[in-house]
Design brief:
12 helices; alpha/beta; Alpha-Beta Plaits; six-stranded parallel beta sheet; 22% strand; Rossmann fold; 2 domains
Length: 290
Amino acid sequence: MFVATLIAKPGSLDPALANALRNAWGGGDLVWLSPDEAAEFAFATLPDTAESAWRDLQAQGVDLAIQRLEGRRKKMLLADMDSTMIEQECIDELAEVAGVGAQVKHITARAMNGELDFEGALLERVGLLRDLPEAMIDTVLAERITFMPGGDVLLATMKANGAHTALVSGGFTAFTAHVAQRLGFDENRANTLLIEAGTLTGDVARPILGRDAKVAALGEITTRLGISADDVIAVGDGANDLGMLQRAGAGVALHAKPSVQAEAKLRIDHGDLTALLYLQGYSRDAFVTP
């Protein structure tokens, strides 16, 4: 059996639209996970109209996800940080206070869309931060970093239901440690900015954590927990996330770059991070507020 999940911004999901799709696909009962926001129905055979239906719904501000019904409630969350759990790219924010914002943002955008080698792009951008005072990291954290809507509820709900949570970023430990502590991640991994005499050296510690390291983290953590990749829901937005999104049982491209949208198993363009709970069959009344 399959399950189709429709997700929109609160108050934006027309019941007639959801019912029409259910009827067209010969689905079972329409279950409202959140009134006028998220609904689902089970069905037996994947229809030929799935792709066209997805395009039509996207044009109306509705995300459509199709999964196998069995096993969609996951035991682990593996999340990217920049533009996923937070609304910014931390390196871009550091670059802004360093006076090289436009140059670094251009490189970041190309790297996240897969147009540039991640490691080379990271080293080029970090090099532009040389001699930035270490204290500016705390300034950026306090004044420029905001959390993606729904992230705290996603973490609290999954952890309350026994899931393990890991934050794995191509960004920097100075940021992941803060984000992990605030949201309640069980562990975090990222690159380490090298600092001497209170200023950034313009380099990072080796090895550099990129696409392959995120896939490796998925394998290492699931082995340690005694679960499989099928038990993982992963979320990210950039090209260096594609490996883990494709390996995980449920790989979600959240407001992602075009190259990632094209290849990810699941795509959320309109909902926030609570969409990952709807994808697993959680209803809003089962959400845990931290």
